[in-house]
Design goal:
This protein is an all-alpha fold and about 270 residues long. It has helices at about 15-35, 35-55, 70-100, 105, 115-140, 150-175, 180-195, 205-215, 215-230, 235-260; strands at about 65, 65-70.
């Protein structure tokens, strides 16, 4: 008696779309399940920052160029909430998996390094965009904001969230414990954030710090995003577009290379 042959696997193409979608959905469910701390908490924190600046000014009307300071400040606060949460999503996912020892559950499924990077990064981008939308609506109830250049707002929102998602992924792969990823936050993300012009115009900085700010990719994501809302910028808008695309491409290649070689992921 001849036994029937097992069914041959169907060719699903060069991309495992089902696996990619599953990983992406897992990353989204991770932050949606605890939305009180992953979505609403950043909104409250951003509003508190905004309230502190508004109260410190009192009745004074401070201007940055031709823009009231509070309108100048709002896009920067929205962007910082977005990128911090995009970074937290990917970095926490990888570091927790490594510390708990279940990183093998991510590496064993038939997902290529590119698919793994894409799933994690898209999950981080989604969290960043969701936080940005909710934060923007919350600030809009306090101070009206216009959007004369929505294309720049959308481009920099996606690119900035992607940049920090990739940075969180690279930092998470490099880290062996929570202290390591905390070091990335304290010595990379925080300094670059405060030098980016979130709370001030970089044109007011001394020449040395002005040049440092213009070598900071965070400056271009803040500047381009703010331009979409107020119509003015401190730097070259199209140079900012090129910088964002270039930095994201470099970080994507680095993350892909880490998964390809199994750097600090495989024994």
């Amino acid at each position: 008696m001849t036994l029937p042959l097992p069914p041959m696997p169907r060719n699903v193409g060069s991309v495992n779309w089902i696996g990619l979608w599953t990983l992406y959905a897992r990353e989204v469910r991770r932050f949606v399940k605890v939305h009180q701390q992953t979505v609403w908490a950043p909104v409250v924190t951003t509003l508190l920052y905004y309230a502190v600046f508004a109260l410190s000014l009192g009745s004074a009307v401070r201007m940055v160029g031709e823009t009231p300071f509070l309108q100048f400040l709002a896009p920067g606060l929205i962007m910082m909430a977005m990128v911090q949460n995009a970074f937290a999503n990917t970095s926490s996912s990888i570091v927790i998996a490594k510390v708990q020892g279940n990183i093998v559950d991510i590496l064993m499924p038939p997902l290529s390094p590119m698919e793994l990077v894409s799933g994690f990064v898209l999950g981080g981008v989604t969290r960043g965009i969701v936080v940005g939308l909710v934060t923007g609506l919350a600030i809009w109830t306090v101070i009206p904001m216009h959007m004369p250049h929505p294309g720049f707002v959308l481009f920099h929102a996606v690119m900035a969230s992607m940049l920090l998602s990739l940075l969180g992924l690279v930092g998470g792969v490099w880290s062996e414990k929570f202290d390591n990823i905390a070091a990335v936050t304290n010595f990379v993300v925080t300094p670059l954030s405060f030098l980016s012009g979130t709370f001030y115009s970089v044109d007011t900085l001394p020449p040395v710090f002005w040049w440092i700010a213009h070598f900071d990719p965070f400056f271009y994501m803040i500047d381009g995003f703010r331009y979409g809302f107020i119509g003015t910028s401190d730097g070259s808008r199209w140079l900012g577009v090129i910088v964002m695309l270039g930095v994201n491409a470099g970080l994507w290649w680095l993350a892909w290379r880490m998964f390809k070689t199994g750097y600090k992921l495989k024994a």
